[in-house]
Amino acid sequence: MRRIIVIAAAGLSLAGCSSFSLDSFKSAPPPMQVQLDSAPQGADAVTSIGPGCKTPCSVSIPAPEANFTVTFNMPKFQSTTVPVTVTRSPGDFTSPATTTLDPSPVFAELQPAGPPPRGHKAMRPKKKKPKPAAAAAPAAPDAAFPAPSAAPPPAAAPTR
């Protein structure tokens, strides 16, 4: 009976060790501050992982696991999306894990929007072109008035 109790106790203690992990001693990574700016300033900047603000500004994001993007929007300017690369280096017993972002700060130069696109041709009424004057038909030889291209009539003899 003593053997059964010893074997059961050893089995339970080994089962408890299998769930033990050193990760439980590590703290959750702190949130990161991301600086956002644009030229011209005052654009709406929104990250693909959630938070956003009006430039120049800073947003707090949870330490990202993967790359993300920041989209900048401003009236009368073209929208611009900037990809952000996340590089993680694991820590060890002497140093914590680090996460770096590239670019940092995230900057976008917004380009002015072009003129609004012209409407489709089918939607605009077509302007009618004036018809050219009809060409004169050649006159018949017995017509009362000769054609302008005909030779002038012979001159009459002078009377005395």
TrEMBL record:
Spell out the Low complexity composition-biased ranges: 132-148
Disordered: where is this region?
A: 83-160
- Stretches with biased composition (Pro residues): 149-160
Q: Residue span of the signal peptide, if any? A: 1-21
Q: Which UniProt keywords apply?
A: Signal
Bias (Basic residues) occurs at: 118-131
Know the name of this protein? PEGA domain-containing protein
Species this protein is from: Bradyrhizobium quebecense
